[in-house]
Amino acid sequence: MTTAPGRSVSANGRSYRWMSRPLVVVCVDGCEADYINQAIQAGAAPYLEKMCAKGASLLGECVVPSFTNPNNISIVTGVPPAVHGICGNYFYDREADEEVMMNDAKYLRADTLLAGFSNAGAKVVVITAKDKLRTLLGKGMKAVCFSAEKADQLTTENNGIAGVLGLVGKPLPKVYSAGLSEFVFAAGVKIMARDRPDVMYLSTTDYVQHKHAPGTPAANDFYRMMSGYLEQLDAMDVTIALTADHGMNAKTDAAGAPQIIFLQDWFDARIGAKKARVILPVTDPYVAHHGSLGSFATAYLPAGADLAGLSAKLRKLRGVELVLSRAEAAAQFELPPDRIGDVVVVSERLYVIGTSPSRHDLSGLDAPLRSHGGVSEQLVPLLFNRPLVDVDPERRLRNFDIFDLALNHTA
Amino acid sequence: MTTAPGRSVSANGRSYRWMSRPLVVVCVDGCEADYINQAIQAGAAPYLEKMCAKGASLLGECVVPSFTNPNNISIVTGVPPAVHGICGNYFYDREADEEVMMNDAKYLRADTLLAGFSNAGAKVVVITAKDKLRTLLGKGMKAVCFSAEKADQLTTENNGIAGVLGLVGKPLPKVYSAGLSEFVFAAGVKIMARDRPDVMYLSTTDYVQHKHAPGTPAANDFYRMMSGYLEQLDAMDVTIALTADHGMNAKTDAAGAPQIIFLQDWFDARIGAKKARVILPVTDPYVAHHGSLGSFATAYLPAGADLAGLSAKLRKLRGVELVLSRAEAAAQFELPPDRIGDVVVVSERLYVIGTSPSRHDLSGLDAPLRSHGGVSEQLVPLLFNRPLVDVDPERRLRNFDIFDLALNHTA
Fold first, then answer.
1. How far B282 CA sits from the closest chain A CA (Å)?
2. Which of A299-303, B51-55, B312-316, B359-363 has the lowest mean pLDDT?
3. Which candidate from A33, A213, A252 shows the least CB-CB separation from B215?
4. CA dihedral angle for residue B357, residue B358, residue B363, residue B369, rounded to 10 degrees
5. What is the number of other CB atoms lying within 10 angstroms of the CB of residue A50?
6. Is the pLDDT of residue B103 over 90?
7. Given B38, B52, B250, which is nearest A37 (Cβ)?
8. No. of H helices and E strands in chain A?
9. Which residues contact B111 (CB under 8 A, 6 or more apart)?
10. How far apart are CA B87 and CA B91, in angstroms?
11. DSSP for B94-115, written as a single string
12. N or C: which end of chain B has fewer CB within 10 A?
């Protein structure tokens, strides 16, 4: 990864033109395209409407499993998990024989283009909502990098910035709140105005999207807020490129009851208790809004298990959309085979996958379950405040093409 | 199809117990499960909430193509299109060499269980929103059968009832209105109160669902209306069973622009103009709310066309979810092979399939496109105002199991 300022930066086999004006890439967590469409329809997001009209709007595919960590890392590396290694929020480390969060930078197998620009002399700012992403995103980078969640604990040494609460003029937001994401935007605006960095990466949390459907009042309020901050950024002559880590769907029946496939119980009943190890890569320390229930699971099976027979039975299970072997899943979803189980199960749009009822605390759910993780949440927005040029209409667009599109294909 | 009153009725190889109280089956057109969930959350549908709580709520799969005619006919016959023959709203009649609406009863290859009950002595009432379904639903039946659309033209000879406008006390509703569906419920309540039929089948129109997302004000208003009428029916000691012909999804990007695969143009560019005949089974005379754009298409190819090669290319096309040969589609979706083309194309959740831009009039769309037709709209609600008993948890539930569940599995 080498470059000279004013030319281009290469990262993971892709080349990015140096920005002619500051570039702000926004990853809106759980931003199903219809959130923006409905907010525009309701008159709640006038800047987003203007942005689509004067710039460009496309749909792209995110990484499956459609979870936060794999997608944020794909966006900042420009490559799928097969290359960068982060294929979930949580995984089974076979070498260490333990189940761990995938938040440590040691799991990251690729350099980020943020680090590439930073090392080439660009001024880079990364702001996340939750702290869990900060370490991964900040790998190898001398730049401003902090989370709204820990905005009261910043030091110049650790974060490249301090005094952000004072700069923003807001109190530390609660971790479960729309305010956590608002703080990201508010800080972005203040820092852009004061420091005018070359690259800014803003990544929000899907607290609102897990609770509220597109077009409902609280969802429209969130996008009204976002529209206002992006308008302020736009006024500072920056390129804005917006995408999402994943979409979001209801995971309930008409009564609002979650539709859950308990996969550990299913295996236990067929091959014996605890013989299979079911991993839910949605798992993270912040479970209150989804109860660790997503639409993607992987399972490690004991030696000698009848993979083909079990897979055939699983395919007939109510709510199951796809059952793939490790090799098939690695090929289809571009995942690192050494970090997924013997079988991958993806559930249908309105279903999620759990382990056993006792292992999911749904008491924190104060609204009917909405979640993600599957193929049904793969399409996400790609929005730009400038027109795009020379994009091959046959090209398969991904959310992790956002830097390429913003730097190499804006007018 | 023979039976004695008081026992059971058989139709198309399935047996239905005689009702112990009047049975009202409601097919809510385009009723994505989240419409009901969101209306309940907003406090707009108190009876629907009570109905779920005291009765039963499940999800079932509708027929693909997830359009109105195939699904209404499956519901009233209890079997898939492979048996009853209605596989679209519109099809290419190869024998007659013409493209025609599939509204004529001559295309129906099975008897309905409505006719079965009627012929066995049950008093049957069928009320549809649009007139297009009335002929098919009323086949072989001496019963009350009319549409809200033509409620001013009813005669006892043709419809088994007259004077419905006076009975309901409402003017004739407009065909493009929420009022068309409201009239169906209002008439159902008045007729149940006056005549207490044994079986009532109410089928609405998805005018509201094509325009308004779950949880938005106009959608909640629709379900508030429906909740009120169903509460009135419930108070008359009837069994209520509710399902949908299909779900409904946004078919746009974040800017609200429809995502359309123009399939006729695609074939024309590859094998010559008009060599392929692309059929959109969504087509019906009422196009204003969807512009004949749905997520399912079938194409007839000229002799010697490279089906495998074209299919492989189609699978890579942006927005394409499935490409199946006639035999594969007939097997997977239980369709009549003689009424579908050489290839079946299903688009992804946010995409629809059209022919050529000039053949789709989108001027009637006054809201961003929402539509259906694909696998992404296959899951629909199954709601009952009484608990269900003895339903095998492994059973694949279909919307066309609704009469079986309501008659054979309610307590």
1. 22
2. B359-363
3. A213
4. -20
5. 16
6. no
7. B250
8. 15, 19
9. B1, B11, B12, B77, B139, B140
10. 8
11. TTTTEEEES-SGGG--S--HHH
12. C
Distance between B253 CA and the closest CA of chain A, angstroms: 6
What number is the average pLDDT over the span B116-140?
94
Between B257 and B141, the more confident residue is B257
The answer to whether the CB atoms of B57 and A348 lie below 8 A apart is no
Record: contact B349-A349, CB cut-off 8 A: yes
Quote the distance between the C-alpha of residue B256 and its chain's center: 25
Q: What is the rounded distance in angstroms from the CA atom of residue A47 to the CA atom of residue B372? A: 30
Contact A166, A184 (CB under 8 A): no
Q: Which two tokens stand for residue B277?
A: 């005949």
Of residues B37, B213, B256, nearest to A256 (C-beta): B37
pLDDT in tens, B284-316: 766 666 789 999 999 999 999 999 999 999 999
> Do B38 and A213 make contact, defined as CB atoms within 8 angstroms?
yes
Per domain, the residue ranges of chain A are 8-248+374-408, 260-371
Residue type (1 letter), A401 = D
Q: What is the pLDDT of residues A204-248, one digit of tens each?
A: 999 999 999 999 999 999 999 999 999 999 999 999 999 999 999
- What one-letter code names the amino acid at B5? P
**Torsion angle in degrees (nearest 10) through CA of A11, A17, A20, A25:** -50
- The pair of structure tokens assigned to B377 is 């709209």
**Largest CA-CA distance found in chain B, in angstroms, rounded:** 62
Per CATH, A8-248+374-408 and A260-371 having the same topology is answered no
Fold of B260-371: Gyrase A; domain 2 (3.30.1360)
Distance of CA A72 to the CA centre of its chain: 5
For residues B227, B232, B237 and B243, what is the CA-based torsion angle, rounded to 10 degrees?
Answer: -30
Cβ(A214)–Cβ(A208) under 8 Å? no
Q: What residues have CB less than 8 Å from B293, skipping those under 6 apart?
A: B251, B258, B260, B280, B282, B352, B353, B354, B360, B369, B371
Residue A42: closest C-alpha in chain B: B216
Contacts with A308 (C-beta within 8 Å, 6 or more apart), sequence order: none
Q: What tokens does B107 get? A: 């295309």
Cα A333 to Cα B343: distance, rounded to the nearest angstrom: 26
- CATH top-level class of B8-248+373-408: alpha beta
Binary contact (A350, B33; C-beta < 8 A): yes
Note the pTM of the prediction, 2 decimals: 0.96
